[in-house]
Fold:
Amino acid sequence: MMKYRRIPEETIRRMPRYLRAFSTLGGHGRGFLSSRQLADYLHLNPPQIRKDLSYFGDFGTRGVGYPVSQTAEQIRKILKLDVSQKAVLIGAGRLGTAIASYPGFAIFGFNIAAIFDNAPAKIGKKIAGLTIQDTARLAAIRSGDVHLAILAIPGEAAQTCADTLVQAGVRGILNLSPCWLRVPKRVKIVSIDLAMEMGTLPYYIK
Amino acid sequence: MMKYRRIPEETIRRMPRYLRAFSTLGGHGRGFLSSRQLADYLHLNPPQIRKDLSYFGDFGTRGVGYPVSQTAEQIRKILKLDVSQKAVLIGAGRLGTAIASYPGFAIFGFNIAAIFDNAPAKIGKKIAGLTIQDTARLAAIRSGDVHLAILAIPGEAAQTCADTLVQAGVRGILNLSPCWLRVPKRVKIVSIDLAMEMGTLPYYIK
Structure:
């Protein structure tokens, strides 16, 4: 596989947005998309989009645009989303239950393979077709090929849980707990706090 | 109030992260935080942090760091989070219910003032102390001082709902529906799709 080097983190962060745009608009039967159309759709600017996509090779044509299905396929390869990626979900509370039932993960090739919680009342019950397992048995995922985890538990429990996940071979964590996690450098964390994401909105209200 | 100009969107996007860091670490009794400490905590680099904070004035001291409570207060002012900001929540499904009960909004001064849903079985019930109202009556929020909304409804319904919100005076939307919204330029949208946010993780797994 071709190696891509020195790509800014912000470019990588936008790539899933491009993928969703190509997937969605492609579904509407378009053969090509220009950077202008993408920009309107994504609230970004065209030069930014052209620069981002150029890091990965020259797959657009001036005056025509980017071929929808080929570009989507290329981005999937770059992001390693062209193979199904297993994830475990920790937390079967309100947020965890919402996540387990969210169809959006499939679009990106994610497969929620197991759900864990530490509440005795929840263990053994089923959500989204999966039986909730005891968090105490989390280390057992080591034997599987799970490299991703979604943390949807209270902040106090998150660090201990992250430590166990890292020992069990998890290399990427989507952290929805309102706390920052200390993990080895080889482990990538994406932290989303919905309140924090909303924190920029008042700034833009004139 | 002092005007701040030409601040990159990415800098604004990081400001709530700084605010949460200063709020959290300040709660642990620290008087000052260096850009290095912030960088370790936030998984960013120190020059980036110093550059970001310098857009808003010179409130750090070399060799000492940023005074925790004053800097938090300053960031709140910049982001207009020093006053309570009312938001309406649309959608009382699993995700909406999780959001209504999430204590994290209060940290940023957000106050979820009303909840709407269009399911007859839900209208009139209470979550998080608020009675679920009929989405058909959404236009009534015009009379209040609500400028923010959180959309936690299926994608198909989101655009119609956003149109009503904009007509009712909403100027900022946290969109959790898996779709992009067309709104006038004066309205700011932050779209979060948890599956999309997770889309960068496999790239970093070596």
